[in-house]
Amino acid sequence: MPTESPATGSPAAVVPAERRRFPRAAGLTAAATGVLCLAVVSMFIGVSDVSLSTLLAGDSAAWDVFWISRVPRTLSVVLTGMALSIAGLILQLMVRNKFVEPSTVGTVESASLGILVVTIFLPAASLFTKMSTAVVFAAAGTALFLRVLLLRRHHRHVRRTDHPPGTSGTDHAAGGPARHLRHRHPDRGDRR
Questions:
Q1: At residue 100, does pLDDT exceed 60?
Q2: Model pTM?
Q3: Residues of 132-143 as b/e, b for ≥16 C-beta within 10 angstroms?
Q4: Residue 190: beta bridge partners?
């Protein structure tokens, strides 16, 4: 049953849920198709000559480069992008800010610092050790950011609520006359 629009008094347009979701689904499908096409194209870009014609001709060197280098490279790039987008979403939900992402809160820089530290102090370390150190530094950098944000929110909350009952925070902070008034409540008596 159509309802009336409060502003105009005319019947409000009822849009089925399927029509509202269609643009989002179409956009998501187009984006996924675009990423898939770019991933396929990237497997044929590189220093070695690997093309669809050399692969179909059965060139064993081209197949080796394709399976040993190009496919793992493309998969790692796609998986890294997915992981960063999920990490960005989690950060946005945690800090309630849609502009936050791992590169703006120092996660990437902290991982780079970890790589630098392990390269300076353990130059012969294995790849696994370097990656593990980068992960630990990235987690520590992100935890530091979240800790600073939590302290800032706590400080702001304390400033906002640190005033006598019955006065507004702005009057108290500005030193206005409401700072000296007592709040009288008829049921509970006087309180400060």
A1: yes
A2: 0.56
A3: ebbeebbebbbe
A4: 184
